[in-house]
Amino acid sequence: MREVIPGVHRLQSARAGNAYLIEEGDRAVLVDTGLRSGAEAVVAELAAASIPRVTDVVLTHYDPDHVGGAAAVQRATGARVWLGAADAGILRGVEPPPTRMRRAMFRTGWLGRPELPDLTELPDTEETEVAPGVVAVPAPGHTPGHHLVRWRGVAFIGDAGRVSNGRLVHLPGLLLSDRAAADATLAAITASAPRLVCPGHGAPARLV
């Protein structure tokens, strides 16, 4: 586990997508978990670290490289696992993914099939404080129920975008569920002037 700034760590064992740990008082919040194939290593990394008890896991969206280890972490820690309501419906198979490309990815088990944790749904229309000072914010576009997490001016943005030369840009267009919503989300993140952006892919960075 590598410290990004005081109170924020980036897990080294998460596969494919980034996973971050936020320390807040006597509790810790995990943001994303990587692929299911790395779940045991994520659990071991958390157990070996000198950190507070993991009480919550916030999944930014339903893609396997972000939700894959959530069930294993939940079993090991008893943490509540949060996911946006629209994405929870897709992950459970109740609702279809919103685009042809995403339906094909879901049908073929792109990046493997995650084990389903016991989910607590985040409302897709309002912010939710999942732990003291840790707020999940709707950030649709990449997926319908995508959320980012804010903590003390740091934005954990999942796949809402990536940082390139100090600016936020989209992931490849084929991965976007709604381009207009994705544009609005990037504009809102930029306007909020976070002191640090922790993306789902790539290194944490500051915007210019």
Give a brief description:
Helices cover 24% and strands 30% of the residues. It contains six helices and 14 strands. α1 runs parallel beside α3.
Model description:
The strands form three sheets. The protein has a seven-stranded mixed beta sheet with strand order 1-2-3-4-5-6-7. α1 (39-48) packs parallel to α3. β12 (162-164) and β13 (167-169) form a beta hairpin. It has 208 residues and is an alpha/beta fold. Helix content is 24%, strand content 30%. The chain has helices at 39-48, 64-67, 70-77, 85-91, 100-107, 179-191, and strands at 2-5, 8-10, 20-24, 27-31, 53-59, 80-84, 119-122, 128-131, 134-138, 147-151, 154-158, 162-164, 167-169, 196-199. It starts with a strand and ends in a 9-residue tail after the last strand.
